[in-house]
Description:
Layout: E1 12-13, E2 20-28, E3 37-49, E4 59-65, E5 67-72, E6 75-80, E7 84-87, E8 93-97, E9 103-110
Amino acid sequence: MLVSRCENVEGKAVTDPEAKEVTIRVLMGDNVGAPNFAMRHFSLAPGGSTPYHTHPWEHEVFVLSGNGKVLQKGGAMAVAAGSFVYVPPDEEHSFVNAGDSPFAFLCVIPAAKFCLR
Length: 117
């Protein structure tokens, strides 16, 4: 068993050229020997966004703080602390900070699909 805190995990800038002001912390995955899932903490600074992209695996997202938008092919949906989002496989999506404070969320994906960009 492992018990820790988010701030004990080093944050790294997402290096995808389409990402803007995004920091990722891998809370659980290979770093703790988790065989099935990876849990990541994302923080988007004001004006920040993740790339608009798709992939063949799902996301489960829980918004911790701030105000954001989830972009999809049909438009955008507002999210805030306490919101949760299911992104199905192969659905185009992006997360955008829609406020003037950090927008933070947890994102869980299958461990075998995890990669840092």
